[in-house]
Write a structure and sequence with these properties.
By secondary structure, the protein is an alpha+beta fold. The protein has a single domain, classed as Gcn5-related N-acetyltransferase (GNAT) (Aminopeptidase). 29% of the residues lie in helices and 27% in strands. A 5-stranded mixed β-sheet has the order 1-2-3-4-5, sandwiched between helices. It is globular and about 45 Å long.
């Protein structure tokens, strides 16, 4: 089934599909059009979409990348990854991860990070492990004051 799926850069016409996919992740209000345009046009963010044979988005991955002093180079972070429920377990997520990793390598990134939450499905964590990611010793700290605005 994944041979019918192609990966390409996201474009403005994908905005509604990206919003629908983010809702599948539980983020109902995350994808306003201004923020989407900002992300899609940002020089340090790449968004790749998986599309079906009719070029309809069925999944996407966003990769932000920036220089970091302590690594003496570029770090990349997978910010979002979602595949439409009907397309899960068919190799789409693997293709999206591959596109993001290829881009990080092309940018000579020193590291690719992603954040996953303990309350997400355990299958998600095992998917990331099968994709070559390892859990590392870290703690996420957040200034919650900004989230309240």
């Amino acid at each position: 089934m994944s041979e019918l799926v192609k990966i390409r850069q996201a474009r403005r016409g994908d905005q509604q599909a990206l919003a629908v996919l983010l809702k599948e992740l539980g983020y109902d209000n995350a994808a306003d059009s201004n923020t989407q345009l900002w992300v899609l046009n940002h020089p340090e963010i790449d968004v790749f979409v998986a599309v079906d044979h009719l070029d309809r988005p069925i999944g996407f991955i966003s990769l932000s990348h920036r220089p970091q002093l302590r690594l003496r180079g570029r770090i990349a972070t997978i910010d979002e990854l979602v595949v439409a429920e009907a397309w899960r377990n068919k190799g789409v997520g693997t293709k999206l991860i591959g596109a993001a990793v290829d881009r990080a390598k092309a940018l000579s990134a020193k590291r690719v990070d992603l954040l996953t939450y303990p309350d997400r499905a355990s299958g998600q964590r095992s998917f990331f492990k099968r994709s070559g990611f390892e859990e590392v010793d870290s703690a996420l700290m957040r200034l919650v004051e900004l989230e309240k605005r």
